[in-house]
């Protein structure tokens, strides 16, 4: 006679949640760049609310629960306050273009430099080691303050925090790799009114950080071929430029979206641009600026030594001019180009005289 | 080369050098007053077998990590201060409030172990699943997305309060939030690519407990890593074991790699905090006493319970028997690991474990 099978314990399990899920039947397909965030913006999951009511932190499109805790306390809940059309592209590109300062920079190509050149490079690296993580700390704070309904821009900002962490690290490595060291801090990004980290509005912060501050730095990084003294430095600046370009693009495209969807804020934004432009060449946040001691260091690097300071200074002026030109291009792309035509902005005159 | 001072005050090695600075028309005469201002010069760090890593930089004064970092500016560790720079709200300025020796190496490992959900996950391996299983997978994805979102929000809340003296930790946490973003992305893609959708949102008992911890980063880390994180790791391992296809295997496998770093940091930090701050062990005992209540309640009421059971049991029917047994064993493993780690930290919980968690030790 066979033994009766042992009956396993049977547990009662709730299945009611299956009736309260998000939209069903989704079949996102990979596109030519794989299965990106764009491909999953399908059905209601691609509906971005103009104003988010998501205060529980649920993923966009998830089934709501009446008893979910409202733990969000999100200040940024209007799409116009943070959105940009190409967020998915910027995020996916950030993932594709991650790099390692430990192994992707050919540190072995660094050889001893003349003292003044090494000091100049170390001053520049100290500056970047100091300021790069402003662009990490500050966007991070805004991520915590933004509803997850705006997943895509949030993700771009988190990629930026990662990028800036890497920048902070690569410049410290350079400063300590060739017989030099860190030098005196600049204090360029500390707390005073109008500075990046004291902004109480995301767009104000982004204008100052992405368009003005990082814009100026991007121009410089792109010209790293001119002042990099070896392959390691040139690659370092090139890789940083790649990252910085995405950050600047975020700022430009967000401002463009805001200008198109919240025209009532245009005059307010013009004032933020006024403030940024007042500092664009004279502020100490611009390492090539007229008041920044890093400008002297740059001139040494551009000239290839203290003895060629004046030649280096001429090249520095080219960088400043390019910073102004690229700034104007960005602001025009963002939809605020009229300020360069109607006399509100002095940047065109600064550009003409920056020779 | 001018002699540089090795420590202390910023002293120019020489007077500002005007010898080469002849006035050239249109070129401002440089002052070069920044030259020679370094607290330690002559540092030459070479790349090792794994390249030039963050931990390699800790030589001389650059490796001196003080117990208290009074500076409220963004001064890099080892750089000279500048008088008159206004302070910023870097309120976490004690080493025991965030430190872990492993942070620098974990940062470099995070950089090396990058993966890209869009192109690295073999999405073509997804095949239709029975509706109840697909719903369970999507529900679990949704819950885990909220776990990761909570981690993002609590880290980013504290990150900009952490002083620059402990930059290794700030850098590591930047990688941790990036990992969270990537996991949210991967899980969302999984949920929306196989005929399903997102699940119902979590009520969020433990999420709330984590987000409402405001005493300090350590207090948040206790809930984030020791309570929630230890459980989440067990869940990921269970999901990997029960994965239906290569896409899921990759997502869960990579998540385990990423979260291993998070937990290493978290446990290391808690250990450091307890061993360097008097009374911290007692504080953690109090927090854990409360945390266990919340965790036990969430384990009981959360949709993770039935959803995981249905995954492990290959559907509702199997979920009610073998699936649930597997789930209970998973939670039992979580509680065992949790108790063991608490013991290692010096915050023993075995005798004080909340009864609603203790019961899982039977499995």
Rg calc of chain A: 25 Å
What characteristic shape of chain B results from the CA principal axes?
globular
As for the CATH topology of chain A, it is Ribonucleotide Reductase, subunit A
Q: Radius of gyration of chain B in whole Å, from Cα?
A: 25 Å
CATH architecture of chain B: Orthogonal Bundle
The first-level CATH class name of chain B: Mainly Alpha
Please write the CATH class name of chain A. Mainly Alpha
Helix content of chain B: 40-55%
Which structural class fits the helix and strand makeup of chain B?
mainly alpha
Write down the domain tally of chain A.
Answer: 1
Helix count of chain B? 11
Helix and strand element order of chain B: HHHHHHHHHHH
Q: Unreliable runs of chain A, pLDDT <50, ≥5 residues?
A: none
CATH homology group of chain A: Ribonucleotide Reductase, subunit A
Q: How big a fraction of the residues of chain A is strand? A: under 5%
Number of domains of chain B: 1
| Topology, number of strands of chain B | 0
Describe it.
The complex is a heterodimer of chains A (355) and B (363). Chain A is mainly alpha-helical. Chain A has one domain (79-353): Ribonucleotide Reductase, subunit A. In chain A, 50% of the residues lie in helices and 0% in strands. Chain A contains eleven helices and no strands. Chain A is globular, with a radius of gyration of 25 Å. The termini of chain A are far apart. The model of chain A has no long low-confidence stretch (mean pLDDT 93). Chain B has 363 residues and is mainly alpha-helical. Chain B has one domain (103-362): Ribonucleotide Reductase, subunit A, CATH 1.10.620. Chain B has helices at 103-112, 117-120, 131-159, 167-191, 205-211, 217-241, 246-276, 280-301, 304-312, 316-345, 355-358. In chain B, helix 1 (103-112) runs parallel beside helix 4 (167-191), helix 3 (131-159) packs parallel to helix 5 and helix 6 packs antiparallel against helix 7 (246-276). Chain B is globular, with a radius of gyration of 25 Å. Mean pLDDT of chain B is 92; it is low at 1-21. Chains A and B meet through helix 1, helix 2, helix 3, helix 4 and helix 9 of A and helix 1, helix 2, helix 3, helix 4 and helix 5 of B.
């Amino acid at each position: 006679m066979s033994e009766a099978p042992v009956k396993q314990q049977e547990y009662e399990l709730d299945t009611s949640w299956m009736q309260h899920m998000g939209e069903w039947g989704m079949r996102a397909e990979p596109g030519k760049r794989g299965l990106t965030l764009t491909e999953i913006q399908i059905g209601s999951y691609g509906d971005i609310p103009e104003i988010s009511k998501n205060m529980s932190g649920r993923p966009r499109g998830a089934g709501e629960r009446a008893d979910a805790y409202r733990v969000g306390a999100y200040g940024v809940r209007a799409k116009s306050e943070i959105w940009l059309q190409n967020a998915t592209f910027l995020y996916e590109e950030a993932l594709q273009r991650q790099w390692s300062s430990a192994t992707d920079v050919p540190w072995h190509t660094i050889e001893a430099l003349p003292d003044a050149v090494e000091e100049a490079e170390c001053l520049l690296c100290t500056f970047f080691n100091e300021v790069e993580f402003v662009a990490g700390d500050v966007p991070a704070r805004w991520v915590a303050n933004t509803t997850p309904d705006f997943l895509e821009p949030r993700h771009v900002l988190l990629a930026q925090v990662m990028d800036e962490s890497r920048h902070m690290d690569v410049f410290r490595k350079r400063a300590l790799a060739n017989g030099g060291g860190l030098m005196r801090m600049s204090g360029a990004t500390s707390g005073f009114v109008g500075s990046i980290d004291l902004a109480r509005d995301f767009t104000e912060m982004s204008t100052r950080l992405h368009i003005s501050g990082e814009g100026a730095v991007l121009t410089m990084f792109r010209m790293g071929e001119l002042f990099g003294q070896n392959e390691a430095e040139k690659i370092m600046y090139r890789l940083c430029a790649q990252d910085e370009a995405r950050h600047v693009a975020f700022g430009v495209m967000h401002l463009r979206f805001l200008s198109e969807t919240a025209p009532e804020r245009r005059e307010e934004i013009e004032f933020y641009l006024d403030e940024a432009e007042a500092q664009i060449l004279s502020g100490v946040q611009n390492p090539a600026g007229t008041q920044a001691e890093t400008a002297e260091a740059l001139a040494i690097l551009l000239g290839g030594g203290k003895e060629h300071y004046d030649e280096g200074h001429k090249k520095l002026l080219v960088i400043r001019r390019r910073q102004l030109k690229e700034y104007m291009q960005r602001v025009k792309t963002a939809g605020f180009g009229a300020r360069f035509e109607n006399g509100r902005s002095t940047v065109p005159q600064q550009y003409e005289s920056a020779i | 080369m001018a002699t540089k001072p090795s420590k202390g005050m910023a002293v120019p090695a020489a007077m500002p050098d005007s010898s080469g600075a002849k006035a050239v028309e249109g070129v401002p005469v440089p002052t070069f007053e920044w030259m020679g201002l370094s607290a330690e010069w002559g540092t030459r760090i070479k790349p090792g077998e794994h390249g030039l890593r963050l931990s390699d930089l800790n030589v001389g004064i650059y490796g001196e990590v003080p117990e208290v970092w009074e500076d409220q500016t963004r001064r890099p560790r080892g750089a000279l201060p500048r008088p008159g720079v206004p302070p910023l709200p870097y309120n976490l300025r004690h080493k025991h409030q965030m430190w872990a020796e492993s942070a620098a190496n974990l940062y470099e490992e995070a950089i090396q172990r990058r993966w890209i959900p869009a192109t690295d996950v073999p999405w073509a391996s997804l095949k239709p699943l029975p509706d109840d299983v697909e719903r369970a997978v999507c529900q679990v994805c949704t819950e885990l997305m909220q776990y990761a979102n909570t981690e993002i929000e609590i880290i980013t809340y504290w990150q900009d309060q952490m002083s620059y003296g402990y930059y290794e930790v700030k850098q590591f946490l930047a990688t941790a939030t990036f990992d969270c973003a990537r996991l949210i992305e991967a899980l969302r893609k999984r949920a929306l690519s196989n005929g399903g959708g997102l699940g119902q949102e979590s009520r969020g008992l433990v999420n709330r407990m984590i987000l409402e911890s405001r005493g300090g980063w350590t207090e948040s880390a206790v809930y984030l890593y020791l309570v929630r994180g230890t459980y989440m790791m067990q869940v990921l391992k269970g999901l990997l074991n029960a994965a239906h296809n290569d896409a899921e295997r990759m997502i869960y496998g990579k998540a385990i790699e990423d979260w291993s770093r998070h937990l290493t940091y978290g446990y290391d930090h808690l250990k450091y905090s307890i061993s360097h701050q008097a009374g911290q062990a007692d504080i953690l005992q109090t927090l854990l006493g409360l945390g266990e209540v919340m965790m036990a309640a969430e384990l009981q009421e959360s949709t993770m319970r039935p959803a995981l059971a249905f995954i492990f049991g290959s559907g509702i029917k199997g979920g009610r028997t073998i699936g649930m047994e597997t789930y209970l064993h998973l939670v039992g493993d979580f509680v065992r690991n949790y108790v063991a780690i608490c013991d290692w930290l010096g915050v023993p919980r075995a005798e004080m474990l909340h009864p609603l968690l203790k019961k899982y030790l039977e499995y």
